[in-house]
């Protein structure tokens, strides 16, 4: 990704949204893709292979991100899908540190080491796929993806029954209460949307928290790998 495109894409987004600034602007991946046009976010060649830009300089891009804060077009800036080593590269050279890191976090993939590192550096984590992306089980290539049935896990189901809550509510509450991360579950269902918000009227017990902590599978629990799915 060319650092000059940082301004171009933000201004394009502001124009589409008809707003003057965004609250948070993220670098989505630590490696860029070749620029084709503003509407082709995941460019591929004629064989379907991703067109990576291996000249991506994340430190140079971050410097331009900082200028977006300076000019008022972004209130805060952050990262997505960066590991600890990549974040450290930003921290060593930045003037404005990342405010947020958006990564995959759920009961099967709890990212303890990365969460502790971010806590030490005052970086708030936002968990995508907090339910392990069950909708991807309906993808045509689902058999090639590692999509665990987290919602059906016996431990999760047992705790949900005890609290008279859904499995999703238990999993979201665990992330918010015990792991102290923000969550962004994905749904188009109005009922589930409401349920996903209603996770602040109960607390998990210490036994619940211990049982859910033990579900962590480490790297084997990761469901998103680069640009798959």
UniProtKB/TrEMBL annotation:
Domain of life: Eukaryota
InterPro entries xrefs: AKR, Aldo/ket_reductase_CS, NAD(P)_OxRdtase_dom_sf, NADP_OxRdtase_dom
NADP-dependent oxidoreductase domain mapped to chain residues: 3-216
SUPFAM superfamilies hit by this protein: NAD(P)-linked oxidoreductase (SSF51430)
Residues spanning the membrane: none
Pfam families: Aldo_ket_red (PF00248)
Protein name per its UniProtKB record: NADP-dependent oxidoreductase domain-containing protein
Organism: Orchesella dallaii
């Amino acid at each position: 990704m060319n650092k000059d495109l940082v301004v171009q894409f933000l201004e394009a987004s502001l124009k589409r949204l008809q707003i003057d600034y965004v609250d948070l602007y993220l670098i989505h991946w630590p490696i860029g893709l070749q620029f084709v046009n503003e509407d082709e976010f995941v460019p591929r060649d004629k064989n379907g292979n991703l067109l990576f830009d291996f000249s991506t300089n994340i430190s140079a891009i971050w410097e331009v991100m900082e200028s977006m804060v300076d000019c008022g077009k972004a209130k805060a800036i952050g990262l997505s899908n960066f590991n600890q080593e990549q974040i450290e590269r930003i921290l060593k050279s930045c003037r404005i540190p990342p405010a947020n890191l958006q990564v995959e976090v759920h009961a099967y993939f709890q990212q303890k080491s990365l969460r502790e590192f971010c806590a030490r550096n005052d970086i708030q984590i936002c968990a995508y796929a907090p339910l392990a992306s069950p909708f991807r089980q309906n993808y045509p290539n689902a058999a090639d993806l590692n999509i665990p049935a987290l919602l059906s896990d016996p431990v999760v189901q047992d705790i949900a029954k005890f609290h008279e809550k859904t499995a999703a509510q238990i999993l979201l509450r665990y992330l918010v209460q015990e792991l102290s991360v923000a969550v962004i579950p994905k749904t188009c269902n109005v009922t589930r949307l409401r349920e996903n918000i209603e996770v602040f009227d109960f607390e998990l017990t210490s036994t619940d928290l211990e049982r859910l902590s033990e579900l962590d599978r480490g790297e084997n629990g990761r469901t998103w790998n680069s640009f798959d799915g």
